[in-house]
Design goal:
alpha+beta; 12 strands
């Protein structure tokens, strides 16, 4: 390796260090982000087997985009041009499937849950309603719930199909690599994978509606088994389509051009930019957020925020308060606008090593819907209740994804308040 290449590697290591640190911190956040490592290992392994010609001009453009976007892009979007730079320098971009695997290595599970969780559940619930109606059952859809003669079946977050979506995208990228598909054919395969994922999840939810509504009885393991069967069928269709799309191409002569001085100079400039602090959004104060003395008729005592919570609250678009209520904890977050920073509490609990179970919906005597579930870590067991509402109490949400889309299109309906109650289970 010549000195210019060594310099390039070192400079890129400095420039992309913030992305690497962010990636590492997301691996144990409880949202299943470690699955991206599988895609990353496959992309690297397959690229070593098939070497391709780099494109230094595109590498220069992508690292310039990374440098400019470093000061205002969120970490996930900042990581995309960083990966693109590596792909253009190594020639991975020549294979659409390998480039797709590289992008899938990004920690996107939590973001998919936040942005697409509610829309996917809505599509699944409506599709299931139509299918079950075709079987002469007069089912009605209430949001993301299905109602039949007083029986309510909820399409809850684990049934949104987002894990199946990521797995379908991974499978389509792998098939595109194995069959050496072009970018056009790979995109077509990805679109079909998305449609098959939605269809498979609708069929899964429709099949599980009958046991959930008490119409038939099936063993517990069948719930996961039905989903795996429909995903396997979708995978077979994808494999057959990829084989049909297969293009016989001649082997390209691999020529590795030397790294230009211009790219090294550009990379050095970007690496210096990353040493400066990135711009953070100013915190908007949430009005009228007084300290509570009572909550639902029970006395509460405010708890000072921990160091980690103080750092989080510093850039939070609103305010955060934590209270002790009897032998439990009350967390209140008042937020002024649609923001990714209002994430579900179960993401934090998963990151702390808790497992989530027994998720269900309940209603208060006033008719407010609440999301309730249990968390377990060793001998510790807690009952967690979550809800979001606007300050006048006219609208309530049980999940962040549904609230986000409402807040995005109705910004004047805020501020909003998210409540999380955590009580130990004796």
């Amino acid at each position: 390796m010549n000195p210019r290449k060594i310099t390039t590697v070192l400079v890129l290591a400095v420039a992309f260090a913030p992305v690497l640190l962010w990636y590492w911190s997301r691996l144990d956040d409880g949202a299943g982000e470690a699955l991206g490592l599988v895609a990353l290992v496959l992309a690297i392994t397959l690229s070593l087997k098939d070497r391709h010609t780099p494109n230094l001009r595109l590498a220069e453009i992508s690292i310039l985009v990374y440098g400019v976007g470093f000061f205002f892009l969120p970490p996930l979007l900042r990581a995309i041009p960083a990966l693109a730079t590596i792909a253009f320098l190594t020639g991975i971009h020549r294979q659409a499937g390998q480039f797709g695997l590289l992008l899938l290595s990004l920690p996107v599970q939590a973001s998919l849950d936040f942005f697409l969780g509610y829309p996917f559940r809505l599509v699944t619930a409506e599709g299931s309603r139509l299918l079950v109606n075709l079987m002469s059952y007069p089912v009605k859809r209430l949001g993301v719930q299905l109602s039949l003669e007083g029986s309510i079946v909820s399409v809850d977050p684990p049934c949104s199909g987002l894990q199946m979506l990521w797995a379908s995208a991974f499978l389509s990228a792998l098939l595109a690599t194995l069959f050496r598909l072009s970018y056009r054919r790979s995109i077509e395969l990805g679109v079909v994978a998305l449609l098959l994922c939605l269809l498979a999840n609708i069929l899964r939810a429709s099949s599980l509606f009958f046991p959930e509504a008490g119409i038939i009885s099936i063993p517990g393991f069948a719930h996961e088994g039905i989903g795996l069967i429909f995903f396997a069928l979708a995978g077979l269709v994808l494999a057959a389509l990829a084989r049909k799309f297969h293009l016989q191409t001649r082997s390209l002569q691999v020529r590795t051009p030397p790294v230009s001085r211009r790219f090294v100079t550009l990379a050095c400039g970007v690496s210096l930019c990353t040493l400066l602090p990135a711009r953070t959004e100013s915190t908007a104060e949430a009005p009228d957020f007084p300290t509570l003395s009572f909550y639902q008729g029970r006395a509460v005592e405010e708890i000072p925020l921990s160091e980690k919570e103080e750092i989080f609250a510093k850039n939070f678009p609103g305010q955060l308060k934590v209270y002790r209520i009897e032998n439990g904890t009350l967390i209140l977050r008042r937020i002024t606008k649609a923001s990714r920073m209002l994430h579900p509490s179960y993401h934090c609990l998963k990151a702390e090593g808790f497992s989530i179970s027994n998720s269900s919906l309940k209603k208060t005597p006033e008719g407010q819907a609440l999301l309730q579930y249990q968390v377990t870590r060793g001998a510790e067991r807690f009952l967690v209740t979550e809800s979001i509402r606007n300050l006048d109490g006219s609208r309530h949400w049980t999940e962040v994804s549904a609230w986000y889309w409402h807040a995005l299109f109705h910004p004047d309906s805020g501020p909003w308040e998210a409540e999380t109650l955590i009580f130990p289970i004796q």
